[in-house]
Amino acid sequence: MEIDPNEIPSMYRTLSGAVVPRPIAWVSTTGEDGVDNLAPYSFFNVVSSAPPTLVFAPGDRPGGHTDTARNAIDTGEFVVNVVDRAMAEAMNETSATLPRGESEFDHAGVEAAPSTRVRPPRVATSPVAFECELTDFVEVGTGNVVFGEVVYVHVDDAVTTDGKVDATKLDAVGRLAGNYYCTTRDRFRMIRPD
C-alpha cells in the first residue's frame, strides 16, 4: 500500500496505527470556573530534560478547543498523570464526552489528590504525576501542541529502585490503534554500544 496524504481525507488511522505504542498522558486541569477536568491523550511525550518539559497534543472539538486545552491556556497549569494497568478502565471512562462543567473525576469515580505547586489536582493512584506550568501552546492544523515545564513530581515508592523510577515496576499502559492498548509487561534488554 502506498499513501499520498493529499489523496485521503485523514491520516489519523495510519499515524495512530503505525506510531505505536504511544504513552498516555492522563491530564488533569482546573477551569476558571473551578471545575476539575481529567482526560487522556496518547499524542504525548517528553521533549527536554533541562528544563524538564512534557508535551501533549489535544485535537480540537467542534466549536473549538477541548476543556483540557482551554483550561491549560486560561490557567497556565496542568498535571500529567501516568496510567498503569490498574487504572486503565477509569482512564478510558474519562475519555467520554461530558457536558461542559461536569468533572471527569466525579464521572469516573477517580480519586483526586492535591498537587504541591499547581492548582489542578493529580490522580491519587497514579504511580507518577508531573505537575506542569504551561510554557507554550502551538496550533498545528486540526490539533494543538501543549508544552509544560515540570515544576514538581510525585512518584510512588513502589515503582522505584534505589531512588529511580524502575521500568520493570511501572506497568504503564500505552495506546495502540482503535480499541487496543498495551502494557509494558513484555520487556527485553540491550546494552547501548559506545
Automatic annotation (TrEMBL):
GO MF terms, alphabetically ordered: oxidoreductase activity
Alphabetized InterPro entries for the sequence: Flavin_Rdtase-like_dom, Split_barrel_FMN-bd
Entry keywords, A to Z: Flavoprotein, FMN, Oxidoreductase
Pfam families: Flavin_Reduct
Residue ranges of the TM segments: none
Limits of the Flavin reductase like domain: 17-167
Cofactor: FMN
UniProt keyword Acetylation present: no
EC number in record: 1.5.1.-
PANTHER family: FLAVIN REDUCTASE LIKE DOMAIN-CONTAINING PROTEIN, FLAVOPROTEIN OXYGENASE
Family label: Belongs to the flavoredoxin family.
Name of this chain's protein: Flavin reductase family protein
Organism: Halomarina halobia
Organism classification: Archaea, Methanobacteriati, Methanobacteriota, Stenosarchaea group, Halobacteria
